[in-house]
């Protein structure tokens, strides 16, 4: 069981808190091992919107797999916001030092800065206070015009609703894009890419459409992308003909076929595994290929397609 611990400071914005909490709560509804906890320096915290929130003043015991999130708060300037006590800042440092991930939403980046966790790292916050954050923490690199940043298990988001994007990103990294897409659909949001990254997952590129038939087929492919999935079986699942499914799928995904979509998911997952130490052969087998030959062909094909696209935009 992994914990997601939200640190509530006075004046916390409800959506900064509720967005990520909803994402991880929904992931738990789908069977992922998440338990949510809320801690504060006092038993009751009044939100920026006036709603009193109850919290525990005792922190749970944390493991490296646990996540600590600091939602933002209402204040005209960072320096005028709440000042976390020394014990709270030490908790943030200790968890990160033990291998855990620490995240912030909006002005919550100020707490990470006070804890020394932004030094030497990329970060972001709400556009209204980005300049102030850069001034207060000159050893940090404040990245503008992005939804979120990740740097050495320190994750920061731009503000308010971007906390949802941050949480979906963490789900995709931990469990793969299928779960993140499933959660995004269930809470009725578009999965959006992080503007700071040159690449975006297939889920983020090809899920921003309104065709429910294609969404249902994508759900199935994402759950079982390591298995053989004949077009006939996918069409039967969707209750349409193979020709109709191919037409609908291509229209919703800028020309992809279901097979191409499945191959893209396999390739992206294999690249992720290889980037975390797996051999190419092991990564290929993990995503459903017999060996690395097909994986190498797909990588080569995508590189050629990317080069052709770059040439056309010159």
TrEMBL record:
Highest taxon listed in the record's lineage: Bacteria
SUPFAM superfamilies: Class I glutamine amidotransferase-like (SSF52317), Homeodomain-like (SSF46689)
Keywords of this entry: Transcription, Transcription regulation
Keyword Cell membrane on entry: no
Domain HTH araC/xylS-type as annotated: residue spans: 215-297
Cited PANTHER family: ARAC-FAMILY TRANSCRIPTIONAL REGULATOR, HTH-TYPE TRANSCRIPTIONAL REGULATOR RV1931C
Protein name: GlxA family transcriptional regulator
Organism: Streptomyces siamensis
């Amino acid at each position: 069981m992994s914990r997601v611990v939200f640190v509530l400071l006075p004046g916390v914005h409800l959506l900064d808190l509720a967005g990520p909490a909803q994402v991880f709560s929904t992931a738990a509804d789908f069977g992922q091992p998440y338990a949510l906890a809320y801690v504060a320096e006092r038993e009751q915290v009044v939100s920026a919107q006036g709603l009193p929130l109850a919290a525990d003043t005792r922190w749970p015991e944390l493991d490296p797999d646990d996540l600590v999130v600091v939602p933002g708060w209402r204040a005209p300037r960072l320096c005028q916001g709440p000042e976390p006590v020394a014990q709270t800042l030490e908790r943030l440092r200790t968890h990160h030092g033990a291998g855990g991930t620490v995240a912030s939403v909006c002005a919550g980046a100020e707490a990470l800065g006070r804890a020394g966790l932004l030094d030497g790292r990329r970060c972001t916050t709400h556009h209204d206070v980005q300049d102030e954050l850069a001034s207060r923490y000159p050893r940090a690199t404040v990245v503008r015009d992005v939804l979120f940043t990740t740097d050495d298990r320190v994750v920061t988001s731009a503000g308010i609703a971007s906390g949802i994007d941050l949480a979906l990103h963490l789900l995709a990294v931990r469990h793969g894009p299928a779960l993140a897409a499933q959660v995004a659909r269930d809470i009725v949001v578009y999965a959006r890419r992080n503007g700071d990254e040159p690449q975006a997952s297939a889920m983020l590129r090809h899920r921003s459409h309104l065709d429910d038939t294609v969404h249902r087929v994508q759900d199935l492919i994402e759950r079982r992308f390591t298995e053989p999935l004949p077009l006939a079986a996918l069409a039967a699942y969707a209750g349409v003909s193979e020709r109709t499914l191919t037409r609908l799928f291509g229209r919703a995904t800028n020309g992809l076929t279901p097979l191409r979509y499945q191959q893209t998911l396999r390739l992206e997952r294999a690249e992720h595994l290889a980037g975390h130490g797996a051999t190419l052969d092991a990564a290929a087998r993990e995503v459903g290929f017999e060996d690395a030959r097909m994986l190498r062909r797909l990588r080569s094909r995508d590189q050629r397609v990317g080069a052709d696209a770059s040439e056309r935009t010159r």
